[in-house]
Amino acid sequence: MRRAIIVIGLLLLLVGLLWPWITQGNWWRWIGRLPGDIRIEREGFSFYFPIMTMIVLSLLVSAVVWVVRRC
C-alpha distances in angstroms, 34 versus 6, 27, 61? Predict the structure, then answer.
């Protein structure tokens, strides 16, 4: 458990330090615009439910946790 917390903390630190470079460019713009995300926009009303994005992120987080627990 300690190792997992340390790894997660180091990953968060790394992402925080690299954030200015991560957000440059358009490679990350697909997040929230996947097929399966629900978007309803009307005059005076907008509804957005990123269901497919949440599924993909859940799978990625689950894979990372699985790898960390195996180490």
Answer: 32, 13, 18
Predicted local confidence at residue 17, as pLDDT: 92
Strand partners, 42: 45
End-to-end Cα separation, the chain, in angstroms? 11
Confidence class for position 51, pLDDT limits 50, 70, 90: very high
Average pLDDT of every residue of the chain: 87
The residue among 70, 71, 28 whose CA lies nearest residue 53 is: 28
One-letter identity of residue 67: V
